[in-house]
């Protein structure tokens, strides 16, 4: 009599991200998964670790030698905001990816154990099928929205797709004394960081370390670039974009104080749309924004429709809930003071603080 068949059991463990073969397999898993994003990639979490010092971790589920689940994480340390595990660091998406028929709950249980072992009282997941696999976590569905639209077939159609009032601003920007470059050279990176640093200081936010941008550009290669708008040779608006599955994702962008007068931001996003289409992209992913924020309404003015995003948060029993929300009343005074800092001071202090924002 034959022995009964023993079904393969799913095992979950912490990945060795120094193993190039395993990382390649995880990259393939993310690329093939319907819910995979650039922020699930080992390349992303390792770039965050390299650029900010926040450790890259990955919980991997395997069955019969095959990868059937992944939860990429960064361990964020902040003397101001505390410690947490986040999927994933400095990203607008993340969460668990599981194959059909697999249960993500086991990955979440493993994450809770991992967080407690590393003295992280909070876990934040920025994506996933929460209703199915996160029943014990606090779900937020109204704090952020995403904005995605199809790109038009040519430049004129793209212009006509923009609502009338915003289209008039774009036309004025196209007639202005502005020059546009795209690349990832040292000059592109320097121009982008100078503009971005000024932009976020003006918003009252500490700037991320330049090393984070450098690490992402190096890790993503041709799947990332920088578009910069210059006026009389000086950069006034710049955006670092990612490319994923036919979509362009303007990710870290901003403008100087002169940008509004020159309509440089309007020119920047329109030029990125045309550039992306020439690269073969069919969608423009305008990213997330706080619901009803200035950026939220700016994107709506371009004709993008907001889609609510879901985040899930776990807090260890007895721990205080983490508050790193820049729009909360608790941080209003700090933001107002930061906006008044000289740019040199803000750029010096900002990266140290921003490393802990995650």
From TrEMBL:
Domain BioF2-like acetyltransferase: 167-300
Pfam families (UniProt xref): Acetyltransf_6 (PF13480)
Alphabetical list of PANTHER family matching this protein: LIPID II:GLYCINE GLYCYLTRANSFERASE
Protein name: FemAB family XrtA/PEP-CTERM system-associated protein
Species of provenance: Novosphingobium rhizovicinum
């Amino acid at each position: 009599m034959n022995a009964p068949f023993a079904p393969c059991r799913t095992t979950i463990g912490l990945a060795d991200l120094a193993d190039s073969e395993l990382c390649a397999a995880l990259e393939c898993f993310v690329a093939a998964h319907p819910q995979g994003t650039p922020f699930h990639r080992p390349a992303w979490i390792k770039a965050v670790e390299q650029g900010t010092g926040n450790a890259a971790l990955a919980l991997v589920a395997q069955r019969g030698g095959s990868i059937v689940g992944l939860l990429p994480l960064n361990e964020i340390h902040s003397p101001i905001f505390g410690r947490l595990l986040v999927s994933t660091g400095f990203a607008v998406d993340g969460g668990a990816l599981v194959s059909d028929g697999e249960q993500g709950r086991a990955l979440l249980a493993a994450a809770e154990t991992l967080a407690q072992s590393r003295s992280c009282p909070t876990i934040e997941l920025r994506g996933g099928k929460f209703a199915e696999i996160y029943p014990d976590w606090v779900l937020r569905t109204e704090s952020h929205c995403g904005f995605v639209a199809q790109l038009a077939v040519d430049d004129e159609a793209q212009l006509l797709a923009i609502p009338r009032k915003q289209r008039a601003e774009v036309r004025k920007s196209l007639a202005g004394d502005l020059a546009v470059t795209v690349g990832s050279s040292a000059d592109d990176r320097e121009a982008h960081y100078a503009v971005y640093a000024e932009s976020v200081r003006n918003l009252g936010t500490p700037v991320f370390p330049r090393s984070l941008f450098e690490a992402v550009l190096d890790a993503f290669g041709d799947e990332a670039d920088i578009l910069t708008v210059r006026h009389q040779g000086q950069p006034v608006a710049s955006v670092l974009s990612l490319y994923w599955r036919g979509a362009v994702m303007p990710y870290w962008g901003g403008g100087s104080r002169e940008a509004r007068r020159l309509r440089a931001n309007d020119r920047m996003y329109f030029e990125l749309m045309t550039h992306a289409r020439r690269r073969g992209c069919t969608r423009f992913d305008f990213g997330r924004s706080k619901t009803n924020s200035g950026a939220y309404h700016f994107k709506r003015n371009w004709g993008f429709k907001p889609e609510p995003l879901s985040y899930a948060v776990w807090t260890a029993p007895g721990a205080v809930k983490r508050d790193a929300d820049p729009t909360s009343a608790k941080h209003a005074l700090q933001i107002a003071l930061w906006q008044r800092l000289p740019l040199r001071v803000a750029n010096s202090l900002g990266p140290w603080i921003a490393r802990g924002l995650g």
